[in-house]
User: Which sequence fits this backbone?
């Protein structure tokens, strides 16, 4: 699995990248995520013009063989964002696993 980070109007610290990477790597419990061809793109954008306190838009795109999964959220911090996105991706991966078995 290859994980790429794309940042817009924000800089992610190494600790934030490591945290996001560890959460995404936790999805390796799904066999499809172990494939070397899986590419994960983490997009993080700071949106100053938003009136809400949730000024960070975080989206994670997972490209697995034959399919693409996506989850996104508005959040206050990078850690909060990845904590919200991880279960969304896990749910999609579970549906994908069930569909392929059935």
Assistant:
């Amino acid at each position: 699995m290859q994980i790429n980070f794309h940042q817009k109007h924000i800089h992610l610290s190494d600790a934030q990248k490591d945290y996001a990477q560890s959460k995404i790597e936790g999805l390796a419990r799904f066999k499809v995520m172990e494939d070397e061809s899986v590419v994960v793109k983490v997009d993080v954008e700071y949106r100053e013009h938003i009136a809400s306190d949730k000024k960070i838009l975080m989206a994670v795109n997972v490209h697995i063989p034959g399919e693409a999964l996506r989850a996104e959220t508005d959040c206050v911090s990078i850690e909060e964002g990845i904590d919200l996105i991880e279960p969304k991706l896990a749910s999609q991966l579970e549906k994908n696993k069930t569909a392929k078995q059935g």
Notes: The domain at 2-101 is CATH 3.30.160.100 (Double Stranded RNA Binding Domain).
